Amino acid sequence: xxxxxxxxxxxxxxxxxxSVDQYRTPIQYPGSGMYLRNITDxxxxxxxxxxxxxxxxxETAVLEFxxxxxxxxxxxxxxxxxxxxxxxxxxGASDTTIQIADPSPVWxxxxxxxxxxxxxxxxxxxxxxxxxSSTMQIDHAFGVSIAAASVxxxxxxxxxxxxxDEVVMVxxxxxxxxxxxxxxxxxxxxxx
Amino acid sequence: MSASDLFxxxxxxxxxxxxxxxxxxxxxxxxxxAEQSRIPLYSTMKRTMSCTMFSPQYLANIENFxxxxxxxxxxxxxxxxxxxxxxxxxxxxxxxxAVAVEAGVQSYFNLNNLCSDIMMVDRIDQKIxxxxxxxxxxxxxxxxxxxTFYRDFYIGxxxxxxxxxxxxxxxxxxxxxxxxCDTEITFEEHF
Lengths: 192, 191
Fold this sequence. Notes:
The complex is a heterodimer.
Chain A: E1 5-6, E2 17-20, E3 24-28, E4 34-38, E5 45-54, H1 56-68, E6 76-79, E7 97-99, E8 113-118, E9 123-131, E10 135-138, E11 151-162, E12 166-173, E13 176-185
Parallel strand pairs in A: 1-6
Antiparallel strand pairs in A: 2-5, 3-4, 5-13, 6-11, 7-10, 8-9, 8-11, 9-10, 11-13, 12-13
Chain B: E1 17-22, E2 25-29, E3 35-40, E4 46-53, H1 59-68, E5 74-77, E6 98-100, H2 109-113, E7 117-122, E8 129-139, E9 142-146, E10 158-175, E11 181-189
Antiparallel strand pairs in B: 1-4, 2-3, 4-11, 5-10, 6-9, 7-8, 7-10, 8-9, 10-11
């Protein structure tokens, strides 16, 4: 079944920001030390990206996605802008092993999903089965051959919702607008 | 709704114009962050539009309108979605229900999703405006409007806008001289 993925490309002239929610309570005892009570290990990330809509179609795509997910209500999948994988060889149509450069800078949960977006705009996703320092094994092949040079984005795919109830379109002209969208991960709702 | 309830003055595009779309969702969550329910308070997005008016010739008209309607609802065009009729320059648009327009209207979000009325505005004499029901967006180059026509509008000086029922949330005048000012107005949708 196709995933509901937010794959509209953000505008890196205003770089995205990312933060991590802190789920611990400091407990301060009088006259003694401080303890940190861990509330959950399902720590979630938030990120905010900017979008420049050059034309009504681009603006409508953002607004329709926001409207269809009723702001903060409905969850979907989104591409994390931090730490991309680098594909080092062509991915064959039936390949379940992808050659990648050192993946150690990318933080990944076990059995997490990844998304690959090509410059042509097609989006592919898969679940990570295993990784070495130069390969990533995924649970199913993409079904098409993808040259390394045609990969625009290859990174984590998170289950999330919008972290805002209001999208503000700033129009500098009738056909040009800008907006910011914030996303927050929902690790407890993610299907394994 | 009478003709005097239409806010028909066009904004100054030298300043940016903002439209916000919001749901005001209520979220119930547990201490570790598991969310039990997320419920939007509105079934469709509520819009707020802020724009700047700089129209020396209409300064008094705008002020009169805003004073008259300060405790009432009225109709405001959604300025980022102007629809330009096409055809013979100067031809009358009176009683033209199927309007040929410049391409692109099927990409207009408000027109296609959150709009039931269309405002016709004479951009040379912005006091002249008329409200019609939007019947359909037939194609990328044609819309159909309903209702009775009361005035003459002409191709070349008329714009159509999707619109919303709103009230004034905020007004701020920034005076350039004693006779000129930028008036920033915030309209909030009412439904």
